[in-house]
């Protein structure tokens, strides 16, 4: 499969890079665990970047490219579900979009707030718009996303003409694409740090033990990216489950190493690493975690 960008994707990527460049710098002492920026969200909406999935000539493949690149930013923005899941629900669905399994209320949900569209995946796919009394914000949660807890689900919900398994496939594609961008940004920030940090009269990056593990982290990050892009283009259940599994397994292994390479700085909020790794921590538990996604991949491949 040729996953090279076509002319439209190159133009969209370049326009997105130009739009997001002013948001790449951040004042860390003002951020805390999660960083959002309404100006970024407004610029993305105005540019129509999260609507590319509605165009059949661009589709999920181009949407995944956008999600991956936005995930590299220090700011958390609700792009994955809006760009990849929302087009499958039809016109008229407003963001932010949250997705949950039927009955799985106990998990903190990313970008859940009054006015958000909550998609419930069970024996069918339904949705509702959250009201203030259904949402409890969790400002002290140790994640890199703004999260909230859903207190109740209304009995009357909007039904959507989409199979639950297809919705889970798109959910897995969204997870893998976002994780790919988070891993790449986290790894890049650590590589910059260890290239500049001196120990025993030489840069940390010159020590072979670090270089081997950084190389392994890069291999994992690359694998997550390519599996996510393949799944986005095929929209195949097995491809999506494998991409989600590898993303969650790689995040589990890589996040530990990245924080260790940072030494004491990796335990503080004075370096932006946590803005990516704390988001990865939440993603590793979605869709049942890596075990459930590995099982889903096996079932899709071999029944």
What does this structure look like?
Helix content is 52%, strand content 10%. It has helices at residues 7-20, 38-47, 59-71, 80-89, 164-196, 208-234, 237-261, 273-283, 289-302; strands at 97-101, 109-110, 117-121, 125-129, 135-137, 147-150, 158-160, 198-199, 202-203. A hairpin with a 2-residue loop joins β8 and β9 (202-203). Strands 1-3-4-7 form a 4-stranded mixed beta sheet, covered by helices on one side. By secondary structure, it is of the alpha+beta class.
Short summary:
With 303 residues, the chain is α+β, with helices and mostly antiparallel strands.
| Helical residue percent band | 40-55%
Mean of residue pLDDT? 91
Report low-confidence residues grouped into runs of 5 or more.
none
Instruction: Count the beta strands.
Output: 9
Which helices and strands occur, and which strands form pairs?
Layout: H1 7-20, H2 38-47, H3 59-71, H4 80-89, E1 97-101, E2 109-110, E3 117-121, E4 125-129, E5 135-137, E6 147-150, E7 158-160, H5 164-196, E8 198-199, E9 202-203, H6 208-234, H7 237-261, H8 273-283, H9 289-302
Key words describing this protein structure:
Butyryl-CoA Dehydrogenase, subunit A, domain 3, four-stranded mixed sheet, three-stranded antiparallel sheet, 9 helices
